[in-house]
Amino acid sequence: MLRRFQKYYYLLFSFLVIASCSPDLDIPETIEGDVVFQVSAMIDGEAITLAAGKANYYMFTDYEVDSNGVSLFQGILGEVGCENCPNSLGFEFAQASGNTVLDDLFSTINQPMIAYRNALTPMEITGYNTDFEIDLEGTAPFSLVWDFGDGTPLYPSLGTFQYEYAESGVYNVCVEIMDAAGCQSIICRTVSTDNSMNCSINFSVYHVNGLNYHFYPYSAGVPPFNYQWNIQDSVSPQNVALASPTILMNQIGIMPIEVSMTDGNNCSSSIMQLVDFNNPDAICLNHFDYHAEPIFTPGTAQDYSSTFAIKYINENGVTYSSALGEQPTFSFLNILETEDFFMNDNNQPTKKITMEMACRLFDMDGDYVDLKDGSGTIAVAYQD
Prior knowledge:
Layout: E1 2-3, E2 7-12, E3 15-20, E4 38-43, E5 46-51, E6 57-65, E7 71-79, E8 88-95, E9 115-116, E10 124-136, E11 143-147, E12 161-165, E13 170-178, E14 184-192, E15 200-209, E16 212-220, E17 226-231, E18 239-240, E19 246-248, E20 254-262, E21 268-276, E22 285-297, E23 307-313, E24 319-321, E25 332-341, E26 350-362, E27 368-381
Parallel strand pairs: 1-6, 9-23
Antiparallel strand pairs: 1-2, 2-3, 4-5, 4-27, 6-7, 7-8, 8-23, 10-12, 10-22, 11-13, 13-14, 14-21, 15-16, 16-19, 17-18, 17-20, 20-21, 23-24, 25-26, 26-27
């Protein structure tokens, strides 16, 4: 079965059916007997066989040229309607000569001209660009001062902006604001360069009766939440650990109210707001958001010339690739036979390739599984 991502080319023995891809597509019945495209191997000591035309599996093919001008001839044995699904095997031949035809690459069968691609030198992270966005309420113009928790001088900024952290880590970031009407707020929250700290806190004050006021928090994060209120000029103790307390005040006027919150992920956030108890709804700061992205320096350029890579996605969705590490001595690739095959639905010609192989497949953390006793027939696309 040969398919290129948007339409199906079904090859049932010598019978070819072309159908559009849609949610209502009738999948051909499982075929009996031999199939055209099939790969068998031992992966991590377990025998697997993927066959196009059985168990909803197909042979996907594609040809593309990457940003370095390298021709990539690709084929994937995987489930229909899914490019990067569990239990799939992908194959990629690369040729940097500029020749987009596979004939030169496979001009001599069983010669060691095609090698497994070497691992890229890892890219180095040199910092973290962190976008901050603040939600302002109150009376313009505003005055803001940021403290990013890394020892840099205080930083005045409005609206959305970007700040660069030199090191990965968790930082306590605070912003202080004052508006033209004298409203003042300070919000602090934990931020992390891996974006794992995503909690925030705000609150409202409601008049109950007399000098009784109800304080209600708005929390975002991972439950459970633990609170600590610091309420000045109250009859009851100033430090209150209740989530939503009702407090009897000594007097009303303008005074600072502070609440701190720690969530179940140990992420913390706090806000100090000058509250006018004659108009407790008036605030000048709601919250701020952030998102960090690593800054990479380029890795060592890859030599693609006449190289080969296998990608395996296991049943848990973990991706392994032969191009993420150095290959051991048992790795090999033998091309036993090649022949022209049908066009795929992108009008790209394809090659039918019978081969034997063994290699080591690495995940992004450097862990690996071994593919041994691999053999089968696949298809890849190219361009005339």
